[in-house]
Amino acid sequence: MSIVTLANKATNNVGIANSLQHILTKYLNVFIAPFLGILFFLGIWSIAAQNIQTSLGVFPGPSAVLTQFSSLYEEHLAERDKADAFYERQEKRNAARVAQDPNYVAKVRKYTGKETFLDQIITSLITVMSGFILATVIAIPLGITLGLSKILNTAINPIIQIFKPVSPLAWLPLVTMVVSATYVSDDPFFAKSFLNSMITVTLCCLWPMVINTSIGVAALDQDLLNVSKVLRLPALTHVRKIIIPSSIPMMFTGMRLSLGIAWMVLIAAEMLAQSPGLGKFVWDEFQNGSSESLSRIMAAVLVIGFIGFLLDRAMLYLQRLVSWDKSNAAL
Amino acid sequence: MNWLKSAKVIAFAVIFSSPALHADEIGFAEKEELTFGFIKLTDMAPIAIAYENGYFEDEGLYVTIEAQANWKVLLDGVIDGRLDGAHMLAGQPIAATMGYGTKADIITPFSMDLNGNGITVSNEIWAKMKKNIPKGADGKPVHPIKADALKPVVEEYRDKGKAFNMGMVFPVSTHNYELRYWLAAGGIHPGYYAPHKSDTTGQIDAEVLLSVTPPPQMPATLEAGTIYGYCVGEPWNQQAVFKGIGVPVVTDYEIWKNNPEKVFGISAEFAEKYPNTTIRLTRALIRAAQWLDENDNANRPAAVKILSQSNYVGADYDVIANSMTGTFEYEKGDKREVPDFNVFFRYNATYPYYSDAIWYMTQMRRWGQISEDKSDDWYKDLAKKVYRPDIYTQAAKSLIKDKLVQAKDFPNFATEDGYRSPQKHFIDNIVYDGKEPNAYINKFSIGLKSGDKL
Amino acid sequence: MNPILDISHIDMVFPTPKGDFTALKDVNLQINKGEYISLIGHSGCGKSTVLNIVAGLHQATSGGVILNGAEVKEPGPERAVVFQNHSLLPWLTAYQNVELAVKQVFAKKMNKKEMQEWIEYNLTLVHMDHAMEKRPDEISGGMKQRVGIARALAMQPEILLMDEPFGALDALTRAHMQDSLMEIQAELNNTVIMITHDVDEAVLLSDRIIMMTNGPEATIGEILEIDLDRPRSRLDLAKDEKYNRYRAQVLEFLYKKQRKVEPMRKSKTENKVKTPITSNL
Asked: Hey, are the CB atoms on A192 and B82 less than 8 Å from each other?
């Protein structure tokens, strides 16, 4: 081997080493560091858990919670089996009744058993999204109106500032009473408990969107406003072509804040109102006070956190799709 | 299969009788989808069993069972129609009909159980009380423990200027009256209510301040030191033992042997609108109660397994099993046989006796919830309005006819007048005769008597 | 020859908490069709105010502006503005930015096809045909300004107003842009009012240079006719005696007659020049 090739090889090696280092650094950032962080957390958690004695036994560590996840899933499957049996029995009973009472209109009734953990997760997700979407539909036009009119903004701002910090727990009794007084129907399309939680969520997550949208609209760049003036854009076109696009980044900031609040509020509202969902799951387990309650609650806490994280990511992803300003939407 | 059997019976009726159903025959349920509420207590068992064993479905009822946050929420649910029926405190339908608290016509066609409550004190109080309790040959405290042992402790706290707080579950709950009965029998004044002066705290002249805590939160509240003791149903006394935070001192069986406890409450409007449904759900509940007590409590372990599910009571199997299977653990390790701690069916436990209703009313009068004198007839009329043995009798008779139960397990419906014969087994040995409420009220040394008004 | 634009004795007074501030006093100027006018003066002398009044974005306190015999009361596309900070809508591509203006101005006069051709023609004019689908944050400052100019030209204005159009660009880019602008001007022969700080730029591009005195009560100090043949070449002019004399005259006006002692702290307007994002009023 000549010296030249050796030297070449050496430089090659350096090159390979460099790119290897580059890849390593990348992986370190993307995978290894978070992995180590989680590992460290799990370690601290299990050590701390062993040393916390509650009246319901030792605080659940990671393994106890993991066991709960699988048993919650098994419960879900078992409940599904029970539901199948329920429908089968019902079918037979309906057939028997129709046989001797031809006028009877057989109706398939929904399974009356308990909601499993998975059912509760889905209920909570549906509720939070409904509440959030309702809030968005109200907040964005309101925010734009307030952003456009200084007088209106000054008039309504005090009201917003007063309602913004109100805890969902304060709204809930009022919402409950109003819903049960006004939403009277023999065959309601929505359950009252769903409406209660949803409206509470809406009331609490409205404000960040209103405020951010109105700020976004009011902070319209003077130059862009001048462009609009020089072009003599009609009012509606001005709002559609200039105001809304320019305030989209702020709207999304508000929407992300709001969705985070909505999720937190929902759990609290479900807990207090005992409406179906993850909050009720946590409260029920707390009340049950069984030896498994704490690990089940811990499992729910992790799920709540993870879903909150996913919701935020989903919002961010949406923002990246819709918004022109990518700097705000970095993952 | 049961549903097949009853379907046959009904089919038979349809084929061989006129299209209008025979008077004895119960028609199909008018309302098939029902929601029942309950509080997480073992004595909700008849509802859970009727569901799990398919008794509701046998009646063509599709029932959803929902745990409620507290007794107030539960009662409001029945009143506003969110719930079709619920596991209720015996005092609730009476108080509601009377208008104490929320006014609403609530009736009960079915008594859910006898006994089942206990009074628990914190470890600290128990240590002080224990000195005042005589010991038996085995070195264990002699039962029943009377409140006499607690009196010096209460006085000690009073001298230190500390309020002595205890918890009960609801102002018109069995637990409130039992705790008051026990305290008063030991010479401790639990305080009066004065609703006509808008004082519903029940702490007038009180030596022990009673306040409301929902049953499942009792242990946590005791642990937090907010209260020194409480009276509650199971499993929340045994939970205190398991958690090592308190000691049950007395069960209500010892305060008043075979006292009526929970009832199944529905609104009067519901019963009127859906008579068949009402009878059918009563049938299902009677069958569930029978199953719970069958063959000397042979089904109890299976029942406990069901109750320990998170959607029912949800406490650990062992905690629920303790009382449900006929034992009761006082101090840790001091486990005693109390076979009748929970009675669901025997001793005619499910029959809604007028005299049971009247006992609760006498206690309401005694502690001022009924602020004025009432005639004996007033007591009897109110009891008749709320307690509905007529519905119960129809349900029981049809079950006997269907051979699902035996006539010997029920009162003689031909002669039964709804009043139990005078009852003697109270901790203070005072005899109760439901036919003479005013005379009974006058027998107590602590409490309002005829003519008293705050 | 009737002037196309008559700026007639305008005063501009801004009310302030400390009393009225008279920014402009009796500014009087007539501009002929096809003329290229530069406004030059120190920061804060009210050049931008004059331009904004012509644009209709400001209303003069007294006096008025008449364009083609009609008084100017509000902004309009016949007086297109090229802003110092390009002012493109950041969510639209170069093409869409021009399209917004074209759609607004020629809604009834052009069909879809014609519009598309017109937009593409104007972008080609400023050499931006290769980046029509790029958004503002994807192109350089000079390119953004080209799009800004294309947008203004696409409106086919009676008069083109340019507020320090190249102020935020580096020297090389600026020179390049000036050359481009002269090319376009040779083709279209627009009437232009341009604000500038740059003496070379003013002499190179203008037919007349309007030199403004310092505020308050700023007004037109001197007017310099630039009698240089077009097309002009910056390389040739560098050695041209006439050019250098014009240049010296402007410099003398700015740094001798209207010498301005700047405070140590940079004034607000000075800052504005350096940071392109702030609005330019």
From this structure: yes
Domains of chain B: 2-114+260-326+340-409 (3.40.190.10), 117-259+328-337 (3.40.190.10)
Dihedral of alpha carbons C191, C197, C203, C209, sign: positive
- Backbone dihedral angles phi then psi of residue C208, each to the nearest 5 degrees: -135, 145
Q: Copy the structure tokens of residue A153.
A: 């903004």
Which residue is listed with tokens 């000054």?
Answer: A154
A248 touches chain C (CB under 8 A): yes
In a domain, C253, yes or no: yes
Q: Which chains form contacts with chain B, at 3 or more CB pairs under 8 Å? A: A
A261 min Cα distance to partner chain C (Å): 29
Residues of A in contact with B78 (CB under 8 A): none
C-alpha–C-alpha distance, residues B12 and B426, integer Å: 50
Q: Give contacts of A231 with chain C, Cβ < 8 Å.
A: 77, 100-101, 104-105, 155
Residue in this structure with the two tokens 């003519």, named with its chain if needed: B451
Q: Which residues of B touch A88 (CB under 8 A)?
A: none
CB spacing of A223 vs C81 below 8 angstroms: no
A223 in Cβ contact with C85 (< 8 Å): yes
Find out whether C142 and C173 touch, Cβ atoms under 8 Å: yes
Q: What is the CATH number of the domain that holds C174?
A: 3.40.50.300
Residue A191: φ, ψ to 5°? -70, 145
DSSP 8-state code for residue C256: I
Evaluate whether residue C269 is within a structural domain.
Answer: no
CB B185 within 8 A of CB B427: yes
Check: CB of residue B83 under 8 Å from CB of residue B77.
yes
A114: chain B residues, CB-CB within 8 Å: 309-311
d(CA C207, CA C190): 12
> Is residue C257 one of the residues assigned to a domain?
yes
Structural domain includes residue C109: no
Q: With an 8 Å Cβ cutoff, are A289 and B216 in contact?
A: yes
CA of residue A331 relative to chain centroid, distance:
17
> Confidence class of residue B52 from pLDDT cuts 50, 70 and 90?
very high
Contacts of A109 in chain B (CB under 8 A): 32-33, 62
Q: How many domains does chain C have?
A: 1
Residue B209, classed as helix, strand or coil, is strand
Angle formed by the axes of helices A278-288 and A244-273, nearest 10°: 30
Q: Inter-chain contact C75–A242, Cβ cutoff 8 Å?
A: no
Distance of CA B5 to the CA centre of its chain: 33
Nearest to B172 by CA among B409, B388, B386, B424: B386
pLDDT (tens digit per residue) in A76-110: 999 999 999 999 988 888 888 888 778 878 788 88
Per CB-CB distance under 8 Å, the chain A contacts of C281 are 222
Q: Which residue of A has its CA nearest to C52?
A: A226
Nearest-CA distance A298 → chain B (Å): 15
Model confidence over B54-111: pLDDT tens digits? 999 999 999 999 988 888 889 999 998 889 999 999 999 999 999 988 899 999 999 9
Q: Which of C91, C104, C281 sits opposite A231 (nearest CB)?
A: C104
**Confidence grade of residue B276 (pLDDT, cut at 50, 70, 90):** very high
Q: What is the CA radius of gyration of chain C?
A: 19
Establish, for the pair of chains A and B, how many residue pairs have beta carbons separated by less than 8 Å: 87
Pairs across A and C, CB distance < 8 A: 60
3-class SS of residue C162: strand
Are the C-beta atoms of residues A242 and C85 closer than 8 Å to each other?
A: no
Band of residue B160 on the pLDDT scale cut at 50, 70, 90: very high
Token pair of B2 as six digits? 């049961």
Across the interface, whether the CB atoms of A230 and C55 are under 8 A apart is answered yes
Q: Which domain holds residue C174?
A: 5-78+157-261
